[in-house]
Every structure is written in C-alpha cells, then in structure tokens.
Amino acid sequence: HVQLVESGGGSVQAGGSLRLSCSASGYTHDRYCMGWFRLSPGKGREGVATIRLDGYTTYADSVKGRFTISKDSDKNTMYLQMTSLKSEDTAMYYCAAAPWRDRCPLTSGSDYAYWGQGTQVTVS
User: Fold this and answer.
1) For the residues 90-111, what does the mean pLDDT come to?
2) Cβ contacts of residue 95 below 8 Å, gap of 6+?
C-alpha cells in the first residue's frame, strides 16, 4: 500500500523560501514517477514539477528558476525547494506518484495514482 506524507509547508513573506518534503512508504522511488501539484482557490489543480525515474525533471513555466525538485532514494523522500516565493504561489501543495518508468508528465495530476494529504503554503 503506497503512502505519501507531505511536510514543510507554512507561512512566509514574499521573496522567502520553503522546502517541502514528501516521505513515501510502501514502494521505492526507483519504481515511480513523482510530482508536486498545487491547488489554490479559483484555480484548478496544476502540476508544479515532476521527477522521472532517471532523474529528469520538468517544471511549470511559473516556477522555473525558482523551484527545484529532487529526491533522496535512500530516504525514500522527495523534496521541493521553493525560493523567491510570490503571493501567487499560495496553495495547498500535494505530492503524487505513478508507476511509470519512462514518462513523468506535468499534467493536472488526474492520471497520478497515489496522493498525499497536502501541505499548505501561504505567501504574503
């Protein structure tokens, strides 16, 4: 049974930084595509960043150059380092996983099988 648990959210001033973590159990990172998604009032869920099995990363245009996705396979944990945060980054952030070996698309997430409970990020 795959379980994902996010942590690291909080409130920060514009221009600040946060690092989100996604701890996984029930599987290993060498078998799943992983991603970060966010949901904010008035917007649909959007893909923020994904990391493929081989480490290839994809980012939404709105976060390129500011956010970095990474994973530590030994710890079975994925991270999202967020810098230069803006008010429009305010959202509930979710990590998700899917058992794809050769792809890891930046979609709305509806095709991802496993989800965490989310962690709130508020930028003021």
Assistant:
1) 93
2) 4, 6, 20, 22, 34, 35, 36, 37, 78, 115, 116
